[in-house]
Write a structure and sequence with these properties.
- The structure holds 2 protein chains of 2 kinds.
- By secondary structure, chain A is an all-alpha fold.
- Chain A is 81% helix and 0% strand.
- Chain A contains 11 helices and no strands.
- In chain A, helix 3 packs across helix 11, helix 4 crosses helix 10 and helix 9 runs parallel beside helix 10.
- Chain B has one domain: P-loop containing nucleotide triphosphate hydrolases (Rossmann fold).
- In chain B, 34% of the residues lie in helices and 24% in strands.
- The chains are: A mainly alpha, B alpha/beta.
- The interface between A and B is medium-sized, with 22 and 23 residues.
Chain lengths: 286, 261
């Protein structure tokens, strides 16, 4: 089968339609990178023009060069802040993965556990974290741990709910097959339920990555000024009090970049794991 | 039931079902008083309209359901590797390669991949897929996936292989090819097969015995012995003997459908 296909491809008969199709594909590939870059350059340019032509004062809207200068000059402040926020976000995400994953396994292994605790997981999720944060600050001594809890609460739910659905989504014929072959509960979990849940879990991970950052930012706004050192969000808030808009924008851009990096990393992880078998990650030739 | 003929040879029974009944949610009779003796090396087809309980019978034999009445007895008792099963869908694990899929029955018994490598290769060779062991299911055609499923069912050399309308979702050409291959395979490894189908032609082509079933309530109405003098190969399906058996079976099926209404 493959032999005939490859000889067919190896022959020289490339018709105009195919040539055109390949050219279109090439153009699409190039445009995928150049178009967004162009939009970025144009946006920065129009930002710059607006600020210079309109003579907008820098304490209302700093120009792009001003922000770049601030980023460079304030790097000694921004870099440690980036580390603080990054550590907070990643730790919260790691805890969300462990907590959400384990809880999902517990819920699917025991119907009783799910019935008892799932409603409270939902309540924890739907209560706005910004309303809980001040309480955490009061009850938890360490500001860092309070902030961590805050970010964790936001991040863990998508992992929990996605993984729970995933663990229940195994093909029912495969379930029967496992029963016929006398699989133990553990074997079923590891060889059937967990692989079936993987695409769902990874989908949850992508959402949780972004939410962990949001949780960290919220926590810093409310708590971050004490003890744990200043994160990016706290730096941003402080800069706003001082009308230091160059630093504010620099912090904002760094936060946004962090979000992009987290999304990119989780997407790559997801793609690497699923690329050989899951429809969502499979590239179609035609 | 009067038309049940005695078996032509005296092969020992592998499995006997005595007055098996299954009632769902108290009042839906899926199967009533089914008697069946499966002999070693036999190829039995369960043929009937939908709702005749043929899939219920398969699930009862597989132990996925428990009968409401009656007993299913395995000669010499039943152990975990007595059964192989092929469903209507290939039912492969999409995250595992072909070889890893075929490994599954062994894996669940706690055997490492390397210790059963030879068996896996042999099973894949039997279905003609030895060069695809590292492929993922999604890279295969429908017919090839079904072959993997068959290889998985055979790999432990089970005493009985259950097939629940395995080729129903495939196109005609692939189906004919797989029917032929299945006969070849049976010749090679001499397994016992219970095959559920709603195709008269397929059941006559493959079976030593056809159990015709009727619906509402699901039950056995006829058993037909298919014992052609003609060798079973591609030519068999164009022989007059085949045509005669087909007519006989079709009549039995029509009768069963009329009973069911």
């Amino acid at each position: 089968m493959t032999a005939t296909e490859s000889t067919a491809m190896g022959s020289h008969s490339v018709d105009p339609e195919e040539v055109q199709r390949e050219r279109r594909a090439l153009v699409t590939r190039i445009a995928k990178w150049t178009l967004p870059s162009l939009v970025l350059v144009l946006s920065i340019l129009s930002w710059h023009l607006y600020v210079t032509i309109g003579e907008v004062p820098h304490y209302i809207l700093p120009g792009p060069f001003h922000v770049a200068k601030s980023t460079f000059e304030d790097w000694a402040v921004l870099w440690p802040a980036l580390l603080v926020t990054g550590r907070l976000t990643l730790l919260a995400l790691a805890m969300a993965i462990i907590g959400g994953g384990l809880l999902a396994v517990a819920f699917t292994q025991s119907k009783w556990a799910e019935m008892s605790f799932f409603p409270y997981a939902v309540i924890l999720q739907v209560t706005p974290v910004i309303a809980i944060a001040p309480l955490l600050q009061i009850y938890v001594d360490s500001a860092f741990i309070a902030a961590l809890l805050c970010a964790w609460i936001v991040a863990f739910f998508p992992i929990l709910s996605n993984t729970t659905i995933g663990l229940k989504s195994a093909d029912h014929n495969l379930r029967d097959l496992f029963t016929i072959y006398g699989a133990t509960r553990g074997q079923r979990l590891i060889h059937l339920d967990m692989p079936s849940a993987l695409p769902f879990f990874l989908g949850g991970l992508k959402i949780a990555g972004g939410l962990a950052l949001i949780g960290a930012v919220v926590a810093e706004f409310v708590i971050g000024r004490s003890g744990a050192g200043l994160g990016l969000a706290a730096t941003l808030l402080e800069a706003s009090y001082r009308f230091n808009f160059g630093r504010l924008y620099a912090a904002l851009i760094l936060i946004s970049l962090m979000g992009v990096v987290i999304f990119a990393i989780t997407s790559v992880i997801s793609h690497l794991i699923l690329r050989s078998w899951h429809e969502s990650a499979v590239r179609r030739d035609h | 039931m009067s038309s049940v003929k005695p078996a032509l040879d005296d092969r020992p029974p592998l499995l006997t079902m005595r007055r098996i009944g299954k009632t769902f949610s108290g009042d839906i009779v899926a199967l009533r008083e089914m008697d069946l003796t499966v002999k070693v090396g036999e190829f039995i087809s369960l043929l009937g309209p939908s709702g005749c309980g043929k899939s219920t019978a398969i699930r009862l034999i597989a132990g996925l359901l428990h009968p409401t009445n009656g007993v299913i007895r395995w000669t010499g008792g039943q152990s975990e590797d007595d059964l192989g099963i092929v469903f209507q869908e290939p039912t492969l694990m999409p995250w595992a390669t072909v070889a890893k899929n075929v490994w599954l029955p062994f894996r669940l018994q706690g055997q490492s991949f390397n210790s059963v490598k030879a068996e896996i290769h042999e099973a894949l060779e039997l279905v003609g897929l030895e060069n695809f062991s590292k492929a993922y299911p999604r890279e295969l055609s429908g017919g090839m996936k079904m072959r993997v499923s068959i290889a998985r069912a055979m790999v432990t050399k089970p005493r009985l292989i259950l097939m629940d309308e395995p080729f129903a979702a495939l196109d005609e050409i692939t189906r004919l090819k797989l029917d032929n291959d299945l006969l070849e395979l049976k010749k090679k490894i001499g397994c016992t097969v219970i095959f559920v189908t709603h195709s008269v032609f397929e059941s006559v082509f493959l079976s030593d015995r056809i159990v015709v079933m009727a619906a509402r309530p699901g039950r056995v109405v006829r058993e037909l012995e298919i014992n052609p003098t003609y060798p079973r190969d591609e030519n068999f399906s164009t022989s007059t003997e085949y045509a005669n058996y087909t007519r006989l079976t079709s009549d039995a099926l029509r009768e069963a459908m009329e009973h069911g209404e």
